[in-house]
């Protein structure tokens, strides 16, 4: 058997990401789908889509690593690895010199201290929606905007407002009040970004921030790419040592969140 | 005869009273605060005057309080809600030494001395999960009216445990429980329990000397009262708990006029 394709699946609280890479670490397929409340179980659909995109059968994939919030319930993974390790590896593949990575997910935010793609230390906030992607999601909704549009709107601001509520729920009411007072939308959105940025900056302070922020080409995929790369490393290492690859069952079934 | 006005612009509901000398209630009015507190305050004052059959110039003094009271468009004195709450509860229950004031956007525990003066307090205001808003968020998920959730929660025999301290994540948990088929009353009992726990954590800082009373919109919720009492406190409930702060404001207005 020729070991040439590796898959990373990152089952996040909000988005499901699948990446297939080949032996030269080229991306052969990438799929990004909403995890959604009712679609949570359908990680297999995202996997099938990625296989189709790459023109591969599942058997041709040498190793599958699942990561993210829902990694335990992916029924077709050969191994689970935490998203901390996978993100560190994924970001390292885009920026080999990176020492600190900020991962803002749908339901938490993390700061990772990295050296040569290895995780040294981390800090995370998952007790409170403020500072996570959910904050942006809910405030966009309160303002009747799509989360994808927030960034470009915010850049038009010349006079950003201060959002005084820390709590996401209170901030929703606050931004609507600001809007009714006639404050320009872009100044409110800039205030929202300022609030989340300073919250995340405080979180990673311990790890020493204060430098240029690099953004990977597709930041959503970092975890899945990292997982695929780790899969390759694990496979090649096992082969070099003459060991057999320990594969999982490979059932392309629904995830078992609720059973 | 002096007539006094107390106005409490809350994050969810605005309340107002007109009293005549001695704190006797002459008229009261409640309305939804909405997003423009200025308009709400003006409307509330007009309604109160109409109900009392008075004109604005008959009012000897107006004290305002609450979340939105700093932008009221007419002549008034702004007093912190904690002081109004203490004054109001002391008029209703003279013996009370601790008030738990559960509002739409914060909860507070206020300790009083025998004269009704504030001696200590603790406020939860950063986080929706410590306020009535948490209940509203979950009521919304379950498509229920806020007034119905307390009684419904009392039917639960198996309250759900909320694993998060955040109202936003709590909302996701509630949605997961609904999709698993958990009965509404169990989810509701769980959220009331979680809120009661948050409020009680505040009491750790200042203590809970009995007799204790509850005020604010939380005082209308039998489910919350039950969960607080399960944590080991007896609660006195005023006939109109939402009006306590507005009444206190009117009493403070009277003290300032005389």
What does this structure look like?
- The complex is a heterodimer of chains A (259) and B (258).
- Chain A has 259 residues and is an alpha/beta fold.
- Chain A has two domains: 116 residues, ATPase, nucleotide binding domain (Nucleotidyltransferase, domain 5, 2-Layer Sandwich), CATH 3.30.420.40; 73 residues, ATPase, nucleotide binding domain (Nucleotidyltransferase, domain 5, 2-Layer Sandwich).
- Helix content of chain A is 36%, strand content 20%.
- Chain A contains seven helices and eight strands; from the N terminus they run βββαββαβββααααα.
- In chain A, the strands form two sheets. A five-stranded mixed β-sheet of chain A has the order 3-2-1-4-5.
- In chain A, strand 6 and strand 7 form a beta hairpin.
- The two termini of chain A are 36 Å apart.
- The mean pLDDT of chain A is 89.
- Chain B is an alpha/beta fold and 258 residues long.
- Chain B has two domains: 110 residues, Nucleotidyltransferase, domain 5, CATH 3.30.420.40; 144 residues, Nucleotidyltransferase, domain 5.
- Helix content of chain B is 41%, strand content 22%.
- Chain B has a five-stranded mixed β-sheet.
- The mean pLDDT of chain B is 93.
- At the A-B interface, helix 5 of A face helix 5 of B.
